[in-house]
Design a protein that fits this description.
The protein has helices spanning 2-5, 19-31, 65-81; strands spanning 13-15, 41-46, 59-63, 94-97. It has 111 residues and is an alpha/beta fold. It has a domain at 2-63 and 94-102: 3-Layer(aba) Sandwich (Rossmann fold), CATH 3.40.50.
Amino acid sequence: MRHLLALGEPPTAVVAASDMMAVGAIKAIEDAGLRCPDDIAVVGFDDIQLAELVSPALTTVRQDKRGLGAAAARSLVQLIDDAGAAPHVSVLPVELVVRQSCGAAKGVAPR
């Protein structure tokens, strides 16, 4: 994140691979004397409990953790039953949870 902030034209938004990385990005933004979301919007992924407690509250993508665990267990059982089988592909739903770090109005999801 510090490298991105040092660019001649730093980004106006960052999407992190996890909420913990997004929290770190917000910290780096603040350490650089900038403000989230005024200068740089931040979005995470996971919707961990900390996401709504940080300031600004983190916009994130919520994934179905139970569904992810169940899909992983099904895939593991399939591999145990038939090691030569093609891996099962699962697509699980996600939900955008809009909070303050993206700069959108509170509770309004972009369309």
